[in-house]
Amino acid sequence: MQSRSHTSQKLRTVPNSEVLISEHKYPGQRGGLTSDVYCTFGAERLKDYEMTFGRWRLKRLLKYLVAGMILIFCVYTIQMIVFVVKDLQCSEEESKQLIDKLCQEYKRKEVAGSLCSSLCDSSNILYHKCTNYKRGKRVLFAECTNSCINGSTIMTVLKSKNEKQDILSLPKNKKGDISEDGQRMARTIFLDTVYNSMHYQIPAGANVFSFLWSLDFNDFIHSSTWTYPIDVAFKSIWSLIQQDEYLFMKLYQKELHYIPRLYGTCGPFYFMEFAPPGKILNPTIFHPSRSSWKDRAKIALGILEIAQSLETHFHEPVHFCDIKEENFGIAEDKSVKILDTDSLFFDEIMMKILQDQKCTSHEDCDFFDCRGWCNKSGGKCNICEDIFINRAGNFYNGLLHDPPKDIAKDLNNLLEQCAYPNNNKGTIVRMPAAAEVHWKLYEILQKSIILLVIITGRDNKEI
After folding, report:
1. Which DSSP state fits 270?
2. Does residue 46 contact residue 24 with C-beta atoms inside 8 Å?
3. What does the alpha-carbon distance between residue 282 and residue 329 come to, in Å, rounded to a whole number?
4. pLDDT per residue over 155-205, tens digit each?
5. Which domains are assigned to the chain?
């Protein structure tokens, strides 16, 4: 019997298959397949797949890299545009001209104030830079030595509105200064202005002019060498009390801890505390916030306290209609300050503004960030939506991002209830959150700070 031996052997690749079949020929046979079929992945095909997969992975990596670079470039460009736009909002040359003009008026004895001499004579107040001319308001930064706080050199903010103001026309005496009748008229006009703007009644027996100014009125007119001291004093006071921000800060300076400190005035300009938002409230791609949860929670508590005070401290609710991070500042003592009190409106004044205009939709009743109701009362502002949570306008994911794990779930639920009380995320919110939600939010933030202090054992340690 002829022995079965392999006389020849070759490998053949079967079409449409990824195996190799071993084909054996026997002596006397033209061809045929043995029952022993050896299958294995084709080395060449596997190598092709590896190369193809490698090229695909490399292409995907390159796409991600290019997309990332484009994204970084876009963010960088946007930030540069923002900086350029902010710079263009004011003019250094024009700002210096404003101060020169003010000092010329002071030297001509046309304006007065407690800080005129420091600005124009001794140079204890030196111009630093301008920041913006938003809504007709001039906002400048200056370095103040010994005049704002005795024995200290600090930054101060100079503000004044550039709008046309009402002219105060009062009867004068034979010497050309304001007559006694004119002084009585001025007193009545000033009292009415204060009440109509702020619903504030100056205490009985107080000198109205001294109460509203940075100088003692009687001391000024008796010690002044100016020809018409009463006229100059009245013009300076009148130019100040027509500015709502100055008037609000002046009247509530001692009552409210979140009002920036007033250092003094010169003509229509007032000098106030420098309390910038800083990286925590106003981070950028170039200056990101690396603040701890404790710091951010404390600032959030400060903002909640301000909101509560605006709701309950006054004879009627006060609406803050320009809520955004940069309108809150952090003082040296880490307390939160309102930087733009121009956007505070008493409820009655807000209602008059809204009622004077006809509406066909709720949007017609919106006033800056305060959202009204057509044919209904109200004006609603939302600190949770505008500052605390992550949304499109919050570059840094909201002030209360990345909370401790043990409160994260409860906190996020409360923030959702606060920002979107009707579960109406994605739409314009007009329904105020329940007061209970604000109190719960305050409580959970306070507890988180206390817990962190207990864990670390040090209140000053950054957490």
Report:
1. E
2. no
3. 9
4. 999 999 876 778 889 999 998 999 999 999 999 999 999 999 898 999 989
5. 92-273 (no CATH), 278-456 (1.10.510)
